Amino acid sequence: MTFQNTREFARELDSKDALNHYQDQFIFPKVNDKRVIYFTGNSLGLQPKRTKAYIDEVMNDWAELAVEGHFYAEKPWWDYQERFAEPLSKIVGALPSEVTVMNTLTVNLHLLMVSFYQPTKTRYKIICEEKAFPSDQYMFQSQVNFHGYKPEDAIVEIKRREGEHNIRLEDVLAKIEEVGDELALVLIGGVNYYTGQVFDIKTITAAGQKVGAKVGWDLAHAAGNIKLELHDWNVDFAAWCSYKYMNSGPGNASGCFVHEKHHNSNLPRFAGWWGHNKERRFKMEPTFDPVHGADGWQISNLPVLSLAPYLASVEMFAEVGMDALIKKRDHITSYLEFILHEIDKEVESTFEIITPSNPEERASQLSVFLHGEGRALFDYLMKNGVITDWREPNVIRLAPVPLYCSYEDMYDFGQILKKGILGK
């Protein structure tokens, strides 16, 4: 399709968009009494209007039933998380028994590393990407310290080549081969938070397992954003947050994946009563007997009030389907890319998109270097109703989330961006 930088063309695209009506199912902040253009769903998704009803249901059950809500609520609390198995499994490409919901993201990654990072004197190294999200970096450092290794010896970062913004697949594979018999774990972000680069999860997983390592993925920026086939790709484990592309609310619960090949294993884990045999959980037995599947990694009674908005979201995803989301994601991201290039021709500043141009290596994010511009432009955008994300030294991250961003939003953003530069 040949794009045009006009409002009429953007509106025509919206009129043909099968997901356009979902915008009306979200609550948008307002700036100057006007609905914002929201580009930060890669940080915190907007609130779906249906969320309040799910929370109110729990609150009403608590008020009317108190402790009996565990068993007699419309959605009984004691197995509330089981309602996620079917819709979440479709979002991440898993069997229902391979997914669960519990805790928060870094907590879950730590807990999964108890099972999947088992270093020995000869096999103890972890491969991650350079400039992984800081929480992952802190996790790696504390894990290797806990096991008695030095981070500088045990943590191997795959680096970008000089002058390049993204990590080449061949460099990942070469590093895995190089570390070889010393490699205990590969744990990478499925989508890099800074550049928006999507990694080849299938190929990297196979390469890591070929040299005898376990392979896990931090899917914070991937779940609900990219096509995942965790079961078929033979991924050992993964975890993700729910508050970015899945719109469950700030700091909300994390999802976990544990491949079924590990369900009958004797992997070590930190146990708690919510992971105990469901049918015998309330018999208060002294010996841990894990639930079969990913639920066996649960520890504590689940925070049902937090799970309620997540359930609202995954049921919306079940309605839409990942294929429809990804189709629009690719199209609207390409239109945003076009708009940026068009505005670039009209101003003296230069925009450098550091997210890969190959659609196979990107998702719902474009990270843009604003050469010749500084923080003042970001401030202008925010004051004029464009909610975006600033990263030093001069990068803005733009996530045109397909559920609630429109093509007309992309056009309007371009006009506001141009006015903010020319009006300096």
Automatic annotation (TrEMBL):
A UniProt-annotated Pfam family: KYNU_C
Required cofactor(s): pyridoxal 5'-phosphate
Gene3D superfamilies xrefs? Aspartate Aminotransferase, domain 1, Type I PLP-dependent aspartate aminotransferase-like (Major domain)
One GO biological process from the UniProt record?
Answer: L-kynurenine catabolic process
Which keywords has UniProt assigned to this entry? Hydrolase, Pyridine nucleotide biosynthesis, Pyridoxal phosphate
Q: What is its EC number?
A: 3.7.1.3
**Is this entry keyworded Hydrolase?**
yes
In this chain, pyridoxal 5'-phosphate is annotated as bound at: L105, T106, F133, P134, S135, D136, D218, H221, Y243, W273, N301
Q: In which pathway does it act?
A: Cofactor biosynthesis; NAD(+) biosynthesis; quinolinate from L-kynurenine: step 2/3; Amino-acid degradation; L-kynurenine degradation; L-alanine and anthranilate from L-kynurenine: step 1/1
Q: Which GO terms describe its cellular component?
A: cytoplasm
A molecular function (GO) held by this record is: kynureninase activity
| Uppermost EC category | hydrolase
Q: Which reaction does it catalyse?
A: L-kynurenine + H2O = anthranilate + L-alanine + H(+); 3-hydroxy-L-kynurenine + H2O = 3-hydroxyanthranilate + L-alanine + H(+)
Sequence positions bearing N6-(pyridoxal phosphate)lysine: K244
User: Record's family?
Assistant: Belongs to the kynureninase family.
Assembly with partners or alone = Homodimer.
What role does it play? Catalyzes the cleavage of L-kynurenine (L-Kyn) and L-3-hydroxykynurenine (L-3OHKyn) into anthranilic acid (AA) and 3-hydroxyanthranilic acid (3-OHAA), respectively.
Quote the protein name from its UniProt record.
Kynureninase
The source organism is Flavobacterium nitrogenifigens
